[in-house]
Design a protein that fits this description.
It contains two helices and eight strands. With 139 residues, it is α+β, with helices and mostly antiparallel strands. The protein folds into two domains: 83 residues, Sandwich (ATP Synthase, domain 1), CATH 2.60.15; 50 residues, Single alpha-helices involved in coiled-coils or other helix-helix interfaces (Up-down Bundle). Strands 1, 2, 3, 4, 5, 6, 7 and 8 form an eight-stranded mixed beta sheet that branches. The longest helix is centred in the last third of the chain and has 26 residues.
């Protein structure tokens, strides 16, 4: 099977650079998949789970906000953060989820839109971490 080069980069540096069979990512317009020799395109990335398959093994990364570019049989993700599902501290992610839910309720009661937006973003990151961890343990 033909492969495509996958590169995930955060502000702290590269997370992965390897050839894969397929990549699936959380775009703002919906989840999308990319195979070898895909047509060039750009997409924004929302917080969620990115998966890639190589030699029948699937791995999962939690990614938060950024961009993806497909060009010349390479897909590059420039994201705010990325974390392998098997590296996620699930207890910490669950605690973060609970804190975010409390902050959302408080912000809604007080009508604090900025705090509500921040809490919703924290909730999405926590949920994405939990999902990546669950997917990694199942696969």
């Amino acid at each position: 099977m033909a492969t495509i080069n996958l590169e995930v980069v955060t502000p702290t540096g590269p997370v992965i650079s390897t050839d894969v069979d397929i990549v699936t990512a959380p775009g703002h317009g919906g989840e999308f998949g990319v195979l070898a020799n895909h047509a060039p395109f750009l997409s924004t990335i929302k917080t969620g789970t990115l998966s890639f398959k190589r030699d029948r093994e699937v791995k999962y990364l939690m990614v938060s906000g950024g961009f993806a570019e497909v060009s010349n049989n390479k897909i590059t993700f420039l994201v705010e953060s990325a974390e392998y599902g098997y590296d996620v501290d699930v207890d910490r992610a669950i605690s973060a989820k609970e804190r975010a839910l409390k902050r959302i309720a408080q912000a809604q009661q007080k009508g604090e839109q900025i705090n509500l937006t921040r809490a919703e973003a924290a909730l999405q990151r926590a949920l994405a971490r939990i999902q990546a961890a669950e997917n990694s343990r199942q696969g």
